[in-house]
Amino acid sequence: MRRFYDERAIIDPVGAALSDAETAVVTWSDHLFRELIAIYGAKELCELPGCSTLTVYEFYHGGKRLLAFKSSVGAPATVGAVEEVLASGVKNIVAFGICGALTDIPTRDLVVPDRAYIDEGTSRHYAEQGEYVEIVNSDKVARFLSGLGASYTKGGVWTTDAFYRETRTRAEHMKARGCVAVDMECSALQTVCDYRGKNLYQFFITADSLSGEEWEPNYILDNHDTADRADIDAVKAAVALAASLKPNV
């Protein structure tokens, strides 16, 4: 079948002038984003166009002007939002959010993905499709977290569009390939950043678990969940990582 990923697109992201901000932090979880806004006093900067309005916030940390936004869940929505942010001049994306554990990882532990197995439909529009995509900056993220004294599990993640179709056989198949967690955006995020020549830095904090015979939702079904110490530490780690980055590093 013919692939069209190397052909010029009909529609380009519009973006907006976001001044000298080179790094943006993105998360998907309401409670994590609320903590980021509260801790760092982030203020609304602008709204970017797209399929839905994307509100971008700005704040300062470590002498750096940083951006932050909350994306809708899933690869298509996230890539659409990130495309607009990258078109606005951002060079680095720091992505952190919740994931599901595929192995025996405790709730609210950190996961650093080193490769993402592609089970979503967005990546193939940006690159030739393989079984997985390498997460380019995983070693840098791991070293940074180690420098903060944070513990984490490093391994592959399974990126799927269809969380209501995560089957036991598919989960075991991904575990056999070294996946320690499941998410919905990682492979697409890395692919779009590769395509645009930008940098992705990503880690997760575990929420639900698919490691046992039965699904353990833990706190993932609580839409009003409040952050605990581990969540706050993850927010601070993501912001510290963002503030440490230099252009094209």
Report on the architecture of this protein.
The relative contact order is 0.21. This protein has one domain (23-244): Rossmann fold, CATH 3.40.50. Helices cover 28% and strands 30% of the residues. With 249 residues, it is of the alpha/beta class. A 5-stranded mixed β-barrel has the order 5-9-8-6-10, surrounded by 5 helices.
List its traits.
6 helices; alpha/beta; 5-stranded mixed beta barrel; 249 residues; Rossmann fold
Give the assembly state of these chains.
single chain
State mean pLDDT (0 to 100 scale): 92
Please report the number of helical segments. Answer: 6
CATH class: Alpha Beta
Q: Spatial order of the strands in the main sheet?
A: 5-9-8-6-10
User: What's the end-to-end separation, in Å?
Assistant: 36 Å
Short description:
The chain has 249 residues and is α/β, with parallel strands linked by helices.
Mind sketching the topology for me?
Blueprint: E1 23-27, H1 30-40, E2 43-48, E3 54-61, E4 64-70, H2 75-87, E5 92-101, E6 110-119, E7 132-134, H3 138-147, E8 152-160, H4 168-176, E9 179-183, H5 186-196, E10 199-209, H6 229-244
Parallel strand pairs: 1-4, 1-5, 5-10, 6-8, 8-9
Antiparallel strand pairs: 2-3, 3-4, 5-9, 6-7, 6-10
Helix pairs in contact: 1-6, 2-5
